[in-house]
Amino acid sequence: MQTRDIAAIIFTNDRGEVLLQKKDMLFKRWPGRWCFFGGGLLENEKPEEALRREIKEEMNYDLANAELFTVYKYVDADRQGKMYIYIAKYDRPISSISIGEGAGFAFFAKEEIEGLSIIDHDLIVLKKFLEKTWNS
To answer: For residue 4, what are the CA distances in angstroms to 7, 55, 88, 123?
Structure first.
């Protein structure tokens, strides 16, 4: 089984909604499913460096401040590793996002999360985040 560490982010807006990316239908692992923005760490790359690089590639956004929320050990069908999950407020209009990967993106309110097809390990972490932020 391949080991691959991932850095990803949970962006929220002023209304407390969560920004997710939709994988395109040609994506081999989870076509058409929702997920966090982010991706794999390159060799000798720190999680924060990988996150900044991925966010620039995926949405043309220069990430300045992000806080580490959790480190989650995940296992998929053919790979495993650590997910370094960060949180940050998205401080621009959604129209400023220039998507470089995936089929789309959207902000979702708490009530909308349950009905989405979200990648399994992202959903586990997202539920932990929502419990901590929306129940406090």
So the answer is: 10, 18, 23, 18
